[in-house]
Design goal:
5 strands, alpha/beta, single chain, 221 residues, Rossmann fold, five-stranded parallel sheet
Length: 221
């Protein structure tokens, strides 16, 4: 095979094989909780849907979930779009009484690229509508305070965007008579961020922070 033929063959293989490999990626991570979902016995009182903040909650205080009949379905790094896609499998399929939705941090951090706050709210609204039509009571949570993201230093206006998104979430929740869990007001410091006493990186809660959050959210469940 001459050099030209080899180059053409390599390009052809790349065009065929790379998209095929990409198609195999479980981009919404349906597989993360697939086995656990089939093993859930009975009806959970609540499913906690979220990103790493929810994902880490179960790791930090698993007793909060087991003792209250709650199920954790948080996945680190996820945006509201990914949560919406897996909502049927990880929430509706479990038939809980409540779903506690905490989403938006990774949208503001642009984990999957830029997204308008209106579209983030739209994803939250869609999750609430899906919950309601399936007899599940949605509970909407404020995005936790943060002044920035270590993995996205280019995002300079995190605190103000989070406050704006929370205002939108609260307004929708009030209009639809959906409980709104205001973690933000209880946790933020003077800069609109998460205090060092509650987080090592200014984004993810520590055990003390989760204990504050637990006292707040239990009032709605």
């Amino acid at each position: 095979m001459n050099t030209k033929s080899f180059f053409i063959s390599a390009v052809f293989l790349a065009a065929v094989c790379i998209p095929g490999a990409a198609q195999q990626k479980d981009w919404a991570q349906f597989g993360r909780y697939a086995d656990e979902n089939t093993g859930v016995k009975g009806t959970p009182k609540a499913v906690f849907m979220g990103d790493s903040i929810t994902d880490g909650w179960d790791d930090s205080d698993s007793g909060f979930f087991t003792s209250n009949g709650f199920v954790c379905r948080g996945i680190s790094g996820q945006t509201s779009s990914e949560m919406l896609v897996r909502f049927r499998q990880d929430v509706i399929g479990l038939h809980p009484k409540y779903v506690v939705i905490l989403a938006g941090t990774n949208d503001v951090a642009m984990n999957n690229g830029y997204i308008e706050l209106d579209n983030v709210l739209g994803n939250l609204i869609s999750m609430c509508e899906l919950a309601k039509v399936n007899g599940i009571r949605p509970v909407l949570c404020s995005v936790l305070p943060s002044t920035g993201f270590g993995w996205r230093p280019e995002v300079k206006d995190a605190a103000s965007k989070i406050e704006k998104l929370n205002t939108m979430i609260r307004s929708y929740a009030e209009s639809e008579k959906i409980p709104y869990v205001d973690y933000h007001s209880a946790l933020k410091n003077d800069e609109g961020g998460l205090p060092a006493a509650y987080s090592g990186d200014g984004v993810h809660p520590n055990r003390d922070c989760y204990e504050v959050m637990e006292k707040i959210v239990l009032k709605y469940l």
